[in-house]
Design brief:
alpha/beta; Rossmann fold
Length: about 375
């Protein structure tokens, strides 16, 4: 294929590639809405539960702000997010691996902000050179960039707690998160205390290199998350990843499903966009051309914009916090999802419980 194309042909090529990969990022900056698209409504007017004031996923933030820094671009570039107000003396380190072509961290701004204000340093490597990059090449760049960033952090004002290293990823980044964990010790990265592949993917329906995951240390807590209505479910790699980590004991792993719930308004939609939490203060503005392409991606793939809602506060963000708390304190997966309270998703404003998460060892 001739990769040097432009104009309408370039748009067509992008759409064909997106179809092959089974993913489009689809996050529009917060506040920008389509004029011809009404907000979805549920079965009742009941409002979603609000973010709790304490516990995992809550708005109990020990830090009032986040310092955001971009270094370079292209495959070796990265963003660095550090807690501030106050600046901590030390902090855990999160490696955040984004979905395919989600090079602008604003797509995950709410999630990043949550982790950083809870007290973690968040590394967001860009790792992509072109749309045709192979996943293992992207993985190698992500590893090298992360090593470079960690060396820089050792000289900075916040001591990186490398004994509290956490890897999380969404979509392609979810598939990469397990691969990086399997190679961490060999490649000179800290051994992660936990990993959280979220709706993990790979290169379309291409074969996922699951055999490599036998090298994930048995000490690692592994939480694999899927959405009940992921429109790209047939190309996701959650089950192959979970099935490949036989060396990880049962009390160190779980497979969790988030569910859509249309009882209230707006409804909760557990699709591929659920982990997206767009904030326009977490990355540069999109150019007009970028926005047009993103709109086309939405049109042709069914990918939504994403939003910050109860699926974040009571689902993904709560699981992130609980997983880190358990991993950093030497507890098992029961501390994350081992009770009905931990799987609860709050209540609609009329008192109806939101559909809870489910967890299993046999997906």
């Amino acid at each position: 294929m001739n990769r040097h194309v432009s104009g309408p042909l370039a748009v067509l090529v992008v759409l064909i590639v997106l179809g092959a990969l089974g993913f489009g990022w689809g996050a529009r900056p917060r506040g920008e809405k389509k004029a011809d698209k009404s907000e979805p409504k549920g079965k009742t007017a009941a409002a979603q539960p609000q973010q709790s004031t304490s516990g995992p996923g809550s708005k109990d933030y020990p830090h009032g702000s986040v310092v955001k820094k971009q270094v370079g671009d292209g495959g070796s570039g990265y963003w660095l997010f550090t807690p501030a107000d106050p600046v901590p003396a030390e902090a855990p380190v999160v490696l955040f691996l984004h979905g395919w072509r989600a090079l602008n961290p604003k797509d995950y701004g709410g999630w990043i902000d949550h982790m950083a204000r809870k007290g973690s340093i968040v590394i967001y490597p860009l790792f992509e050179e072109t749309r045709m990059d192979e996943p293992l090449d992207m993985m190698k760049r992500a590893i090298q960039t992360t090593k470079t960033v960690i060396e820089g952090l050792k000289k900075g004002p916040i001591k990186p707690r490398l004994d509290r290293f956490f890897i999380v990823g969404h979509s392609l980044g979810g598939g990469l998160s397990a691969q990086v964990a399997a190679r961490a010790e060999k490649e000179g990265l800290p051994i992660p205390k936990a990993i959280m592949p979220t709706e993990p993917g790979w290169r379309g329906k291409g074969e996922y290199p699951a055999d490599a995951l036998k090298d994930i240390p048995a000490s690692v807590l592994v939480l694999v998350i899927v959405g009940s209505d992921d429109q790209f479910a047939e190309t996701r790699q959650a089950k192959p990843i979970f099935g490949a980590i036989q060396q990880v004991p049962n009390d160190h792993k779980r497979f969790v499903t988030l569910y859509s719930d249309d009882h209230g308004t707006p409804p909760l939609i557990a699709d591929h966009a659920a982990p997206l939490s767009p904030r326009d203060d977490y990355g540069p503005a999109f150019t007009a051309q970028q926005q047009r392409r993103r709109n086309l991606v939405e049109m042709f793939t069914g990918m939504r914009d994403g939003e910050i809602d109860a699926l974040d506060w009571y689902g993904i963000w709560k699981l992130t916090d609980a997983l880190c708390d358990a991993a950093f304190s030497g507890r098992s997966m029961d501390a994350v999802v081992g009770s009905s309270d931990r799987l609860a998703m709050g209540k609609w404003s009329d008192g109806t419980p939101v559909k809870p998460m489910t967890e299993t060892l046999t997906p």
